[in-house]
Write a structure and sequence with these properties.
The chain is 34% helix and 26% strand. With 282 residues, the chain is of the alpha/beta class. It folds into 2 domains: 4-137 and 222-274, Rossmann fold; 138-220, D-Amino Acid Oxidase, Chain A, domain 2, CATH 3.30.9. A 6-stranded mixed β-sheet has the order 3-2-1-4-12-11, covered by helices on one side. Strands 5, 6, 7, 8, 9 and 10 form a 6-stranded antiparallel β-sheet that branches. Strand 7 (164-167) and strand 8 (172-175) form a beta hairpin. The protein is elongated. The two termini are 18 Å apart. 43% of the residues are buried. It binds flavin-adenine dinucleotide and 2-acetamido-2-deoxy-beta-D-glucopyranose (2 copies). Residues 9-15, 34-37, 42-44, 46-50, 52, 106-107, 123-127, 131, 142, 144, 175-176, 217, 219-220, 245, 247-253 line the site of flavin-adenine dinucleotide (FAD). The site of one 2-acetamido-2-deoxy-beta-D-glucopyranose has 3 residues, from loops.
Length: 282
């Protein structure tokens, strides 16, 4: 096998950063991102983009710390704004510079990608519930407002983190809500009014904000981030998969650390594929 063909499913912050990381670190590979939605239509675009350590109850704490630290160092090194919308744009251009391809397509079954690809990386977020039949993943609905209020330069957050005002490069994010198990992607006008009044209580000048847009995102919540290898087998065929999904409320905060780990797992699969004796044993 000369060039290893890698498909990454999903174009949120997790899929794009994983694709960029693979194309930077893995020699002799081609990377194709396949997704039914691209920026601005992903959950990652709704995120305020704050680096806040979230906790995944079933992921070991040292692992979470490592992902967060690696992400923090990565973002500090490129001294970039952590705003999710922009991060998405930068990741897409970074991927194209590395020769990566983007395809708009909905995947119903991973086997569609065989034999066109040698390794598949599953970064489908909440899509994994259908795609992988993973019932441990569920939505935590979040509604926010994105408004023009360029005079707001500092973030404000209440003690519980439910109400927040996060200035970004092109708009201020006002939040928020968390509703477990709610799949509704349509904004609720009553909730928007309530968010607005909670935020104005923290920062009264927001009453003057203009161009207020309502956005909804479904956090791909799971007790444990699924970051692992799996060899799918059907008939006599095999398809090596790396899963990287279930980042819940903290995907932006750990995206680079989990992309690095997914890349290590891809390298392990490549090693296996290049060692014919081990393939026949799997
Ligand atoms: C209101 C709100 C605020 C947030 N604030 C923060 C914050 O401040 N800091 C932070 O760290 N996190 C925050 N988050 C969480 C963060 O947004 C998520 O953890 C992160 O976006 C998850 O990224 P992802 O790439 O896994 O998922 P997504 O962005 O949902 O991407 C999944 C991708 O997979 C594609 N896909 C799915 N199924 C299929 C299929 N079958 N075929 C093809 N493509 C498929 C989708 O089209 C999409 O491109 C927030 C979330 C919300 C909702
Ligand atoms: C985002 O979704 C809207 C509404 O479905 C669509 O018109 C637009 O083309 C989408 N954008 C991208 C980049 O896919
Ligand atoms: C994700 O992995 C599961 C196997 O656990 C598979 O059934 C599903 O099709 C995969 N989805 C994608 C998009 O890779």
């Amino acid at each position: 096998m000369d060039t290893v063909r890698i498909a990454v499913i999903g174009a949120g912050v997790i899929g794009l950063s994983t694709a960029v990381c693979i194309s930077q670190l893995v020699p002799r590979c081609s990377v194709t991102v396949i997704s039914d939605q691209f920026t601005p239509n992903t959950t990652s675009n709704v995120a305020a983009g704050m680096l806040i350590p979230h906790t995944y109850p079933d992921t070991p704490v040292p692992t979470q710390k490592q992902w967060f630290t690696e992400t923090f160092r990565h973002l500090s090194a490129i001294a970039e704004s952590a705003e999710a919308a922009d991060a998405g744009v930068h990741l897409v251009s970074g991927l194209k510079e590395c020769g990566g391809l983007l395809l708009t397509r909905r995947i119903e079954d991973l086997w569609e990608l065989q034999p066109s690809f040698d390794i598949v990386v599953n970064c489908s977020g909440l899509g994994s519930r259908q795609l992988v039949g993973d019932s441990m993943i569920s939505p935590v609905r979040g509604q926010v407002l994105q408004a023009q209020a360029p005079w707001v330069k500092h973030f404000i957050r209440d003690g519980s983190g439910l109400t927040y005002v996060y200035p970004g490069t092109s708009y201020v994010t006002l939040g928020g809500t968390r509703h477990k198990g709610d799949w509704n992607l349509s904004p609720d006008a009553e909730l928007s009014r309530e968010i607005f009044s909670r935020c104005c209580a923290l920062e009264p000048s927001l009453r003057r904000a203009s161009n207020i847009k309502e956005e909804v995102g479904l956090r791909p919540s799971r007790p444990e981030v699924r970051l692992q290898k799996e060899m799918l087998a059907r008939g006599g065929q095999r398809l090596p998969v790396v899963h990287n999904y279930g980042h819940g409320s903290g995907g932006v905060s750990v995206h680079w650390g989990s992309a690095l780990e997914a890349t290590r797992l891809v390298m392990e699969w490549i090693h296996t594929l290049r060692t014919p004796a081990t393939v026949s044993k799997l």
